[in-house]
Amino acid sequence: MATTTNIKEVARLAGVSLGTVSNVLNQPERVSEATRKRVLDAIAELGYVRNDSARQLRAGRSRQIAIVVLDVTNPFFTDVVRGAENAAEEQGVMVVVCNSGEDADRERRHLDLLEEQRVRGVLITPVDDAPDSRLEKLINRGTPVVLVDRGSGWRDRCSVAVNDVLGGRLAGEHLIAGGHRRIAFVGGPMSIQQVTDRHQGVKLALEGAGDLEGAELTTVTTPTLTVASGRAAAAQMADMPDAGRPTAVFCANDLIALGVLQELTRRGVRVPADMAIVGYDDIEFAAAATVPLSSVRQPREQLGRTATQLLLEEIESGGRHEHRHVVFQPDLVIRASSHIET
Amino acid sequence: MATTTNIKEVARLAGVSLGTVSNVLNQPERVSEATRKRVLDAIAELGYVRNDSARQLRAGRSRQIAIVVLDVTNPFFTDVVRGAENAAEEQGVMVVVCNSGEDADRERRHLDLLEEQRVRGVLITPVDDAPDSRLEKLINRGTPVVLVDRGSGWRDRCSVAVNDVLGGRLAGEHLIAGGHRRIAFVGGPMSIQQVTDRHQGVKLALEGAGDLEGAELTTVTTPTLTVASGRAAAAQMADMPDAGRPTAVFCANDLIALGVLQELTRRGVRVPADMAIVGYDDIEFAAAATVPLSSVRQPREQLGRTATQLLLEEIESGGRHEHRHVVFQPDLVIRASSHIET
DNA sequence: AGAGGTATATGAAACGTTTCATTGAATCGT
DNA sequence: ACGATTCAATGAAACGTTTCATATACCTCT
Lengths: 342, 342
Description:
Two copies of one chain form a homodimer.
Chain A (H helix, E strand, L loop, with lengths): L6 H8 L3 H9 L6 H14 L5 H8 L4 E6 L5 H16 L3 E6 L4 H13 L4 E4 L9 H7 L4 E4 L9 E5 L1 H14 L4 E6 L5 H16 L7 E6 L5 H12 L9 E4 L2 H13 L9 E6 L2 H4 L6 E4 L2 H18 L7 E4 L2 E3 L9
Parallel strand pairs in A: 1-2, 1-3, 3-4, 4-5, 5-11, 6-7, 6-8, 8-9, 9-10
Antiparallel strand pairs in A: 10-12
Helix pairs in contact in A: 1-2, 1-3, 5-13, 8-9, 10-11
Chain A binds a DNA duplex (30 and 30 nucleotides) through helix 2 and helix 4.
């Protein structure tokens, strides 16, 4: 183990006082050029590395923020993380990424540790909305927190989210405009706010087209938002009698949509001729599917970026801070999977 | 800002000495049950949270390890991260995830910060092999480091990697066994060791089939390992004259393979009938492609898990440690994209 | 030449823990 | 009953910074 060279040794080698070395590190302009050089040389020679623990201890707080995501293997969240990192980097703040894996207990342990580390703030998509949660304690003790994509019900926090009802409506209206009257919604579980919002949106679209008497919405609930669930749902739909079978399907996310696409193609159902598909999230693999997937695009990176800005704002404000709720509007990206060539 | 309640206040409220509180926290068995309860009550009442900076300062080191990945949005690396997290969790160690984004400068900044934080060890897939690198300094100062998937040329470190030459050979032999004689390799840049190894592997497979005189390998070099590069490469191949055009393609990773698949399908080239495809990595989206992709599977999670175990081992050993190089053998997963039904 | 400034450099205090040598009290064995 | 042993609790020292009030030297102006 490299015996830690400390500021004192540097001072001795450079022939200056301990405080001067600190000044070179933190306020170089206060030190004469000659001594500054001497100190920097000593630092280089000894390979001195600042001890952040001592620094933080003295300062009373760290220089890091944390982002706690539900699933680090989900492309949606990795993009959010990238946005947060970029925004933080511009301010010279480091981001620590924590993965709760949708496990409340693991989330709790992460928050324990983060609080012990006195992080300056936390971006989080919480696992649940338990009112008496670990998260609430963190907030009450004074750590700034911004909610990412799970804003509902937290009036007293900053949050960023996407208007999922609108996203659902865009998808629905697009399919109706394409001539579809029997539409299916595939997604779940319904305990997830985003899923019900998207469902609600497509429902509104169908109701809005009131003059079209025949319009009808089938809902296929899935246990998870995964490719496998999509495949199962597609199998279920393909087995329906031809008469009532939907001609279009709107999926709660792209993983499901990819599963649906895969299973339909396997069964010889042509997409979009026999069945159109619209997904949600517009992850990179949506465009890369063999039948490129239409999808409702969320500004994922922007989500992370804005959340970080709100957090840094709250941190800077030191108490005087008005919480804000930023809601983004999604876009519909039309690709081959729902584009009927005429 | 929550005025930090410290151990001293807890001691006062509980009517014990400062050292006793510390003992309750760290060696509860040394404290009588009565006082322990009194202290714990005081902690709960005050909402006391340990200050990790002070703890670390005293201890001289942290309780965290870090993993620095090339690209946090690449499914390959997120799986490696998950493996590392799981292994670390079992030992009560936290993992900090850092993303270099293939940017050497960003990698350097991360390492600076990690060293200041006195992390106990680092798992890293370095951006480059620069001999006089920041990484080497870190190592020389005594921080244990394990190289992930970039083992070559670092004899004096632990490393984990996958036998990419074998992976390439498996893919090549599979295609030859399927009757293919004109095979293309798509991938790049060749400066990446993994790419040249995989290329080398498929070349060996063709040479091994020496009796097959007609066997021939075309190499299409791409600038990146992305879906877009795959599409471009496929376009290039499709434009070749029918006579010399390959009947099978082996891609350096799955993203490229998905791009190739997409472009070929768009052009009406049937997969696998007209052209077979084998990818590399077996990411989740490989199986979910409309023509499920054959792929060389790497034990991604295992890679992260083993790397973490090696790192923890080195940390524990305190100097007396024999560096080890663990090389995994890849598997070929055969799916529809290379399976010619007869 | 002396008063008032302005740069620089200094050294001690403080941040909140953990550790460890001591002390004090209680229990044990003979 | 008394020394020996065990068990609990104590309090001061140390970890490596940053900060801040103070000291020193050097100018500048009248």
